[in-house]
Design a protein that fits this description.
Number of helices: 4
Shape: globular
Number of domains: 1
Strand order of the largest sheet: 1-2
Helix content: 40-55%
Distance between the termini: 34 Å
Largest sheet: 2 strands, antiparallel
Order of helices and strands: HHHEEH
Length: 85
């Protein structure tokens, strides 16, 4: 993640949540296939999208990695729970 942020020249606080999910997803897919993730490989699948000083990544040219990413996390409350002492 740090290499990607450094390459594009913005801070993690400027990355919208789905952008972070896409970076982590890419990393997990690479590692599950025994590949070392890199900026060059990431850029083969994703392109930078900016909107009012915030950034994300969209699929480049319709290329897909292995699985579709969620568009939102609207059901997170049903999967969230607290652990008491």
């Amino acid at each position: 993640m740090a290499a990607i942020l450094h390459f594009y020249g913005f801070h993690i606080s400027q990355l919208i949540p789905i952008g972070m999910v896409r970076i982590r997803h890419f990393e997990f897919i690479c590692r599950s296939q025994g590949l070392e993730p890199s900026v060059e490989k990431f850029r083969a699948f994703y392109q930078l999208i900016s909107n009012m000083g915030f950034y994300s990544f969209g699929l480049r040219g319709g290329k897909k990695i292995l699985i579709n990413l969620p568009n939102s996390f609207h059901d997170w409350k049903m999967k969230f729970f607290f652990i008491r002492e």
